Write a sequence for this structure.
């Protein structure tokens, strides 16, 4: 059971199955969380006020004809953490989810306690990957031990890296994508973290060398 300070935490649910959303809502309410809304897909979600109040979004990836991967970055830009809760256990989907900015990934075949642990950890600022998902990544790594690991960047991060390689400033890049300079700086920070660089100067050097490849 959560402590009193956790009881006001607001969670928004995105899953195209109403019964799944209802089950998750009951589970989370029993743990003291505030489920501030739910939706079957992205368009419905972004029309609800509850989404903009949420501190965490629990996101399915199979949303009818919509791929939930495309919602991760927009949800993160709203300020919410994103915990993927999906039936997909393949390494490629898991890697893409984290590349898009997911804070955690839980396979739907896991027991409910694993999901609750993931919620707690992500809300505490940690990343989380469930045992089944971790096993899938481990199997992929073991099947190709000689393949060097290349950090996966999201499409937007790759675009920003390319523009940095051309010498564009953060203000220039903000203008290209019609986003704030602060959002560009957030993207840069993510790239720096993924590439294990020392800072912005190192990122620009890397971008000049690799950003346009």
């Amino acid at each position: 059971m959560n402590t009193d300070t956790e009881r006001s935490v607001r969670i928004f649910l995105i899953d195209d199955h109403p019964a799944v959303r209802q089950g998750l809502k009951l589970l989370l309410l029993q743990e003291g969380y505030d489920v501030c809304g739910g939706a079957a897909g992205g368009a419905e979600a972004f029309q609800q006020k509850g989404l903009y109040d949420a501190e965490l979004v629990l996101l399915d990836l199979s949303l009818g004809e919509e791929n939930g991967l495309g919602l991760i970055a927009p949800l993160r830009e709203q300020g919410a953490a994103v915990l993927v809760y999906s039936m997909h256990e393949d390494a490629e989907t898991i890697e893409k989810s984290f590349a898009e900015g997911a804070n955690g990934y839980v396979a739907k075949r896991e027991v409910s306690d694993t999901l609750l642990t993931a919620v707690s950890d992500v809300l505490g600022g940690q990343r989380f990957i469930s045992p089944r998902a971790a096993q899938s990544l481990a199997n992929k790594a073991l099947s190709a031990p000689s393949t060097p690991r290349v950090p996966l960047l999201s499409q937007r991060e790759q675009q920003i890296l390319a523009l940095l390689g051309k010498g564009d400033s953060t203000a220039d890049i903000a203008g290209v994508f019609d986003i704030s300079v602060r959002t560009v700086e957030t993207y840069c920070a993510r790239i720096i973290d993924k590439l294990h660089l020392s800072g912005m100067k190192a990122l620009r050097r890397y971008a000049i060398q690799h950003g346009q490849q």
Remarks:
- The chain has two domains: 4-143, 155-210.
- Residues 61 and 67 are 6 Å apart (CA to CA).
- Residues 4-143 form a domain with the Rossmann fold fold (CATH 3.40.50.2300).
- The radius of gyration is 18 Å.
